[in-house]
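Predict structure. Chain length: 189.
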Amino acid sequence: ELRTILAKNVRQEKVANKDIKMRTDCGMVSVRKQNIEVVKGIVVVALLVWALFMGLGAVIYHKDFTVAEYWLGTLNSFTILLFSIAVSVLFGVLLPSVDALNGASNILGLGMSFFSGVFVPAELLPDYVNTIGEFLPAGGYMKNVRLLNIENSATTHFSEFLVNCGIITAFAVAVFFVFLVVVKRRKAA
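Prediction complete.
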C-alpha cells in the first residue's frame, strides 16, 4: 500500500512539473532569462541566510574572537558559500527530481566533509584520506578553520589562508562554468 501511495505521488509530481514547464515555456520570458532569475534567487536567499548567521555569530560570540579572526572566518565561510551556490545551481539543472537532488547533495556534502576532516580530526584519519581531502574545497575550508583555531595563526599565516580561500573560489568558478556549459548545451539540444 505504501508503494502505491509513493508511486502515485511521484506520478503527480511529474505531471505538476511538466505542467509548470509547459506554462513557463509558452511565456514571453526566454529560457536564458529564466535561468538568470533562478540563479539570482538562489544567490539572494543564500546570501541572506549567510548574513543572518554571520550577524548572529557576531552577537553571540563577540567576546570569543578578535576582529581579525571574525573577518577572516567570515571570508572563509563566504568562499565555501560561493562553492555551495555553484553546486546548487549545477545540481538543479542536472538532476531530474527533488529526491535525486537531495541524494546527490548528501553524497557530495557528507563525502567532502568526511575526507576533509570535518567529522573526525585530520590527525586521526589515514594519510590517503587526508591526501584526498587536500584536493577538495572543504579541505581548504578546514585548513583555514584550523588556522583560525590556533591563536594568531591565521594572521601570521595570512598568505596560506588566502591561498586556501582562492582554491575554494576557483572551485566555485569552475563549477559555475560547468553549469553555464550544461545550460548552453541543453538550450542547443
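Summary: Residues 158-188 form the longest helix (31 residues).
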